[in-house]
Predict the structure.
Amino acid sequence: MTTAHCTPNSAWQTATEAGLRAIETPFSDRIVPVEHRAPSTYTIQRSAYPEGVVLIPTGSDPTASPAVLPAIVTDAASQEVTLDPANLLDMGIGGAVVFV
């Protein structure tokens, strides 16, 4: 897992999109949706989120903007990423799934 600077389009609590810029593993800068979700198992499909998505656990919004969040970066052939409850909780204040 890498990290990314995530800049929301408004306060994290109301953000609908965020700009992502890679810190370690290179991927292109992009704008992705932001979704607040309760801890659970999620399958994130490339067809629904072609560039990726930022997931924020409900009630755990980052306080900084931009925030440095973990990012799961896929390989080029990956069509989906499944997060089990521990993965989403391990992201703490949120994280991103990035399709490359």
Summary: The beta strands are 2-8, 17-22, 30-37, 42-45, 52-57, 67-73, 80-83, 95-98. The two ends are 14 Å apart (CA to CA). The chain has one domain: 2-98. The chain has a mean pLDDT of 91.
